Amino acid sequence: MERFLLKNIESPGSADIDEYLRVGGYASLKKAFGMEPADIIAEVKAAGLRGRGGAGFPTGMKWDFASRDPKFPKYLICNADEGEPGTFKDRPILEKNPHLLIEGMVISAYALKSERGYIYLRGEYPYAKAVLEKAIAEAYGKGFLGPDITGSGFGFDLSVHQGAGAYICGEETALIDSIEGRRGQPRIKPPFPVNVGAWGMPTVVNNVETLANIPLIVSMGAEKYSAIGNPECPGPKLFSVSCCVERPGVYELPMGITLREIIYEHAGGIRGGRELKAVIPGGISTPVLTPEGLDCPMDFVNLPKRGSMLGSGAVMVFDDTVCLVKVCWRAMRFFEHESCGKCTPCREGTGWMRNILERIENGFGRDGDIELLQDIALSITGKTFCPLGDGAAGVVLGFIRNFSEEFRYHIANKECMVNEGA
Amino acid sequence: MDIVDEIRALSGKYPDRRGALLPALYVVQKEAGWLSQEALDTVSRALNLPQATVKGVATFYSMYKHRPMGRHLIQLCTNVACMIMGAERLVDLLKEKYGLEPGGTTGDGRFSLVVMECIGACDRAPAMLVDTDFHAGLTADNIFRILEEYE
Ligand SMILES: Cc1cc2nc3c(=O)[nH]c(=O)nc-3n(C[C@H](O)[C@H](O)[C@H](O)COP(=O)(O)O)c2cc1C
Ligand code: SF4
Ligand code: FES
Question: Do B15 and A178 touch (CB under 8 A)?
């Protein structure tokens, strides 16, 4: 497939504004300024773009809600927190194609009538911060940011806001708290950020990849754009593929491609010709699949039918040398560490589950531990403030549903079913 | 520009001064590598925010440090992809070679070690940040060659 989001990134100067202009950059912005803001929102709606940050919410609909709110100023925030383990898909845009993101943000801001934007960048990406700050300065220099952008009469200011190592700040309301200079803890919804967001004003939060799709929709038009990938949720999609494959990396492919194609045709298959055991399709918070799920199309409609989710599109591939009890334990240690502590089922439950998984992994598992894990997970599901708690529960339930034999073996034999590093 | 002015300039990017709190904490942390009481007081004065507000925020985020750190901060990822690719062994080796434990600092004050959740480099696992430099594809061998560059 022709690459749009990662176009030209192999070129050494791809992050420079001159190089971006040379390959046709900022032409969509020019086209957008010839359109009415409402028409751009209609185009994004018609294109069927769904948010790439994890939840898959229709972007045009979100923009519509925000633009109908009479309050001003409105804020546009790019979510570049990229904290979901296994995910590194936004990184090539941030580091190698930053002007695509900036162009997408200016067009979005124009459509939303927002004059102020922030890129909420995770603290663990210092290199991306330097690249983005340089790119923003270049864009100001050439008049693509600031007052009266390219003579359009529209003005927009943009800066980077650096996070400080809290996964929960990827959740949009916690992110807003963090931009406001608070502890990042999810807020109750409704009201939604589109009405009451940053500093109480209508705020649109979109993922990096979502915003990077906007110039493409404007230049191609909704009809051509929606012919890419699955008609129910179209467009190009970035997949970050990691763990036991020959060629881990970020792949730009049409939405709806199967896991089998991603793993075997693009990522070079399982390392060393070993056997595939399990796949996490959308980052650590999405339930694990068995090899039977390989032909499932990777999108927001088909993965849920298989009991999982597209999440961030982070494909984590495990071969037969990997102990899944250990993977599950490590995932739970992550959730325990990152729980913001606001609600009891998540704060306490993640710790309890980590504890039980740890004793199973270390050979001290007890009869009934599997049922206990399920019981705790089910007591978390649906009883927490934000999806982190549900995600943690879903991960444990997914591993037990698909690989209970491995857990039972671990408890009965006090050791791994696999010989690691074999 | 003195540090108070630098912090006040940051608040120009936000509709109110509290917005500048996270960037301000980074500014003061850059001075000594951690946030002393004095550093927190500086932020509180510069932004005219209560000390409790500043401290409450500073202690929420793991990248703000509340005790002195070594001259170089090693942030080594041990999340799933890095774990599978051998990060635990690297943690053990750091202990053997430098006596460095997660959360600790070497006796000579050269390195501090923090084990991290995913740092977004799973395709080249295991990975770490040393200060603001990123290193990936780590092995038992090359990790020490890399670290020797940091005095
Ligand atoms: C615990 C948690 C972590 C999240 N982390 C991220 C993240 O790192 N990046 C991101 O874009 N969205 C993340 N999200 C989703 C955001 O809340 C939000 O839905 C998204 O930024 C909206 O943008 P989109 O519609 O363009 O996807 C997270 C959600 C939750 C519940
Ligand atoms: S579910 Fe967990 S992370 Fe989300 S608000 Fe509750 S305690 Fe915080
Ligand atoms: S798991 Fe270590 S960088 Fe992602």
Answer: no
Contact at CB, B18 and A180, closer than 8 angstroms: yes
Q: Parallel, antiparallel, or unpaired for β A314-319 and B72-77?
A: unpaired
- For residue A178, what are its two tokens? 């963090």
pLDDT at position B12: 94
Q: pLDDT tens digits, residue range A66-88?
A: 999 999 999 999 999 999 999 99
Nearest by CB to residue A180, choosing from B19, B61, B83, is B19
> Mind telling me how many Å the CA of A314 is from chain B's nearest CA?
10
In a domain, B63, yes or no: no
Question: Which superfamily does A17-225 belong to?
Answer: NADH-ubiquinone oxidoreductase 51kDa subunit (3.40.50.11540)
Model confidence pLDDT, tens digit, residues A93-141 = 999 999 999 999 999 999 999 999 999 999 999 999 999 999 999 999 9
Answer yes or no: is B65 within a domain.
no
ipTM of the complex: 0.97
What spacing in Å lies between the alpha carbon of A56 and ligand 1's midpoint? 9
Count CA atoms within 13 Å of residue B70 on its CB side: 24
Amino acid at A109: A
Residues near B144 by beta carbon (within 8 Å), at least 6 away in sequence: B93, B97
Q: Which CATH architecture has domain A324-413?
A: Up-down Bundle (1.20)
Pairing label, strands A236-243, A249-254: antiparallel
What the block records as the tokens of A243 is 């763990």
DSSP state of A264: I
Nearest to B60 among A85, A122, A184 (CB): A184
The residue ranges of DSSP E strands in A230-332, in sequence order, are 236-243, 249-254, 276-280, 314-319
Place of tokens 């192999």: A10
Among the listed residues A266, A248, A249, the one whose alpha carbon sits nearest the alpha carbon of residue A257: A266
- Give which of A286, A349, A276, A360 is closest to A319, Cα–Cα: A276
**Min distance A180 CA to chain B CA atoms (Å):** 4
**A134: its two tokens:** 């340089």
* Distance set, CA B45 to CA A166, A256, A399 (Å): 26, 53, 50
User: Are residues B42 and B91 both part of a single domain?
Assistant: no
**pLDDT tens column, A136-172:** 999 999 999 999 999 999 999 999 999 999 999 999 9
A303, A296 Cβ separation under 8 angstroms: yes
A83 vs B contacts (CB less than 8 Å): 117-118
Tell me how far apart the 2 most distant CA atoms of chain A are, in Å: 73
Give the residue, by CA position, lying nearest to ligand 1 atom 8: A82
